[in-house]
Write a structure and sequence with these properties.
The protein is α/β, with parallel strands linked by helices. The chain folds into 2 domains: about 280 residues, Ribonuclease Z/Hydroxyacylglutathione hydrolase-like (Metallo-beta-lactamase, Chain A), CATH 3.60.15.10; about 180 residues, 3-Layer(aba) Sandwich (Rossmann fold). Helix content is about 30%, strand content about 20%. The chain has 14 helices and 24 strands. The protein has a 9-stranded mixed β-sheet. Strands 7-8-9-10-11-20-21 form a 7-stranded mixed β-sheet, covered by helices on one side. A 6-stranded parallel β-sheet has the order 14-13-15-12-16-19, sandwiched between helices. Strand 3, helix 1 and strand 4 form a beta-alpha-beta unit. Helix 4 runs antiparallel to helix 5 and helix 4 packs antiparallel against helix 8. The protein is globular and about 70 Å long. The two termini are about 25 Å apart. This is MBL fold metallo-hydrolase. One of its GO terms (molecular function) is RNA endonuclease activity. Keywords: Hydrolase.
Length: about 500
């Protein structure tokens, strides 16, 4: 039985998740994500897929974040007609996120075409449109956590809670038939134990191969308690001194809802009632509605708190929801007493950039960075100490105070990744994806150093690599464009 796994995205980077399984001629795609980062990175989304989209039998989607789901419309545009298997909340969030992405694609293309028309250049087409998103939504097949389903001949799948965002899943895959059957476990993006709203990541015990994310493979997050103390300190110093505004660039799905929950829990302790809190993101507002409507997926603390406070939903109680552009613009006239949560999380789009134009140059402003910032993004530049940012074509001086609060991350840190892997029996082979090279190298060394986690074999995936799954637990790499004509084992 011919079984291979080829890596086409999130290889030595944290965006564009895309991995191709082939089992006896049946092709199944794990994720199909948008490449994010610099403008040059984004242009790669228009490149043809390195496979025939019309021959993909099915897609298994780990979660709704755009770097995992964002090229699904383009996949359909290129000929994919099969089912997309995912958890119910993920499908609902994709309806929100993909439509927003389509709107941005069409708007940005229209802006570029106006310039190109003046110079007699060929007009561009958006990567996908809302009509393409309609086709995506029609192809979703909802799978409950714990439900084992056949997605292709010789490929069965089971999803379990990954604790990363609502609906996120660890994906178990059984490939082929016994006695040659192999089991692959794809971590998707792993969350963290003890975080608010969602349940903890699910531990899996059996696998022949683990495909594991490595976003924070080189560092430890602050503890949850230390993070709360840090946030309280930021709010206390700013609010009590009555100075400036607080801007929080936040991912619309996951981080925004977590912040709303924290503001509800600690409104009194952090003295937030003295300030106006605004969620300035139509997509985050729609995503919050999905969270509210998927109450059964929340952790027990959230459910208990909600039961004890009827009529006061913790995600709806403390912030104004800013939908219209006009309402958002009005916030620019407020120079103090304002907390704004706005997208995008990496500051490379969305309304946060407009707020930067009016606040970034003011020393009274505080900016809280509370999520991963990919290389090349404005958020990464701020974290790395940039003295100015270019926004909408103009250079803006950075005078605001920049606070990096890593403890709010929805990604597992090194210790949590090691702990998750440690629950597998017999130390299966592991391949790292979804991480930058430095973080991956540190994590793979940590895995191999500890006898409790040392895998039989380990590797860092590279774009285009093709693995022979029949050879597991050995990692035998088949010919790729960057390799010789002979199979190799790393």
């Amino acid at each position: 039985m011919n079984m291979t796994l080829q890596f086409h995205g999130a290889t030595q980077e944290v965006t564009g998740s895309c991995h191709l399984l082939t089992v006896n001629g049946q092709q199944v795609l794990l994720d199909c994500g948008l490449i994010q980062g610099s403008k040059a990175d984004s242009l790669r989304n228009h490149d043809p897929f390195p496979f025939d989209a019309s021959k993909i039998h099915a897609v298994v989607l780990s979660h709704a974040h755009i770097d995992h789901s964002g090229r699904l419309p383009y996949l359909i545009n290129q000929g994919f007609t099969g089912p997309i298997y995912t958890q119910k909340a993920t499908a609902e969030l994709c309806d929100v996120m993909l439509r927003d992405a389509a709107m941005l694609q069409e708007r940005d293309t229209d802006r570029q075409n106006k310039k190109r028309a003046k110079n007699d250049l060929e007009l561009l087409e958006p990567l996908f449109t809302e009509k393409d998103v309609d086709l995506v939504m029609a192809q979703f097949e909802v799978v409950d956590y714990g439900q084992r389903v056949q997605v292709a001949d010789g490929v069965e799948v089971c999803l379990s809670d990954a604790g990363h965002i609502l609906g996120s899943a660890v994906v178990e895959l059984w490939l082929g038939n016994k006695p040659e059957q192999k089991k692959l476990v794809f971590s998707g993006d792993l969350g963290r134990a003890g975080m608010p709203i969602l349940g903890d990541p699910t531990f899996i015990e059996q696998a022949d191969l683990v495909l594991m994310e490595s976003t924070y493979g080189d560092r430890l997050h602050r503890s949850w308690q230390d993070t709360l103390v840090e946030l309280k300190s930021i709010f206390k110093s700013t609010i009590h001194e009555g100075r400036g505004n607080i801007l929080i660039p936040a991912f619309s799905v996951g981080r925004s809802q977590e912040l709303l929950y924290l503001f509800h829990l600690y409104a009194k302790e952090w003295d937030l009632s003295r300030w106006r809190i605004c969620l300035d993101s139509p997509m985050a507002i729609k995503a919050t509605e999905v969270y509210v409507n998927n109450y059964p997926l929340m952790d027990e603390d959230f459910k208990r708190f909600t039961r004890q406070s009827p009529g006061q939903h913790p995600l709806l109680s403390c912030a104004e929801f800013i939908n219209s552009t006009e309402e958002s613009i009005e916030l620019n006239d407020i120079h103090e007493g304002l907390i704004v949560i706005a997208g995008s999380g990496m500051c490379n789009g969305g309304r946060i950039r407009n707020h930067f134009v009016h606040n970034l140059w003011r020393k009274e402003t505080d900016i809280i960075i509370c999520g991963f910032q990919a290389m090349g993004t404005p958020g990464r530049l701020l974290v790395d100490g940039a003295e100015e940012l270019t926004i909408h074509g103009q250079s803006i001086k950075v005078a605001a105070s920049i606070h990096t609060v890593g403890g709010l991350s929805a990604h597992a840190d090194q210790a949590e990744l090691l702990s998750w892997y440690r629950h597998f029996e017999q130390s299966p082979a592991v391949i790292l994806v979804h991480g930058e090279p430095e973080a991956q190298q540190v994590l793979i060394e940590a895995l191999n150093k500890d006898p409790a986690t040392k895998p039989k074999h380990s590797a860092i995936a590279k774009r285009g690599d093709c693995l022979d799954l029949n050879a597991l637990p050995q990692l035998v790499w088949l010919t790729t464009a960057s390799e010789s004509n002979e199979p190799s084992e790393r």
